[in-house]
Amino acid sequence: QYRQALPVLKQLIKHYPRYRYWHQLGGLYGQLNKNIERLVATEVVYLAGALKKERELVSLAYLYLGANTPYRAAVTLEKGIDKKQVKATAKHLELLGQAWQQAGEGKKARPVLEKAAALSGEGKIYAQLAGVYLDIGDNESAVAAAQNALQKGQLKRPGAVQLVLGNAQLNLHCYDKAVEAFEQAGKYKAAVVNAKQWLNYARAEGERVKDLREAGAKLEGCGA
Q1: 141 within 8 A of 109, measured Cβ to Cβ
Q2: 58 contacts 92 by C-beta, under 8 angstroms
Q3: Residue 114 phi/psi, 5° resolution?
Q4: Is 115 exposed, middle or buried (0-12, 13-18, 19+ CB in 10 A)?
Q5: Per-residue pLDDT tens digits for 117-136
Q6: Global pTM exceeds 0.70
């Protein structure tokens, strides 16, 4: 009877403010699917330095991500890993990289995801890494990571990876390769709209550059 237990636990906290009661309150809010309240109660325990178990710290990071505060998730995980409270497994490093990426910190996400990819070898991490490379302007690495992800397979959103690959090829002035990637992306329902738009752009840009070269313009070639 979680709802009936809630006011009792609040009274306990009011008169006997121990961190274990705050921790229990967070768990109770979790049972009631009140994740913001759960986050607040859990954060009280964390800020007091009373949250030390790996499972609890990883759970807090997920709560931060769910509350659209990825920077806090990344900082929490990074501190946990540095203090040896959270093991630097491929899964935890992937989560840390995801948090840094969502926080707009691509340069911090890069080495974390590179290590995660090396540890796991899973396509999904290379797919995430490809997006980070694209965000920070390392297009050649984005192409390599995207191709690696597609080769390894078992991706939840292969169309999205093809879109990343196509955009990286565009930035490298490889228009024919970009067209090919966007055509592949268009085969997936979730990516078909974006793929069509990028495909039209890639074809038009390729023709424009071709015409300029034929007119004597010196433009950068594929991969330049």
Answers
A1: no
A2: yes
A3: -60, -40
A4: middle
A5: 999 999 999 999 999 999 99
A6: yes
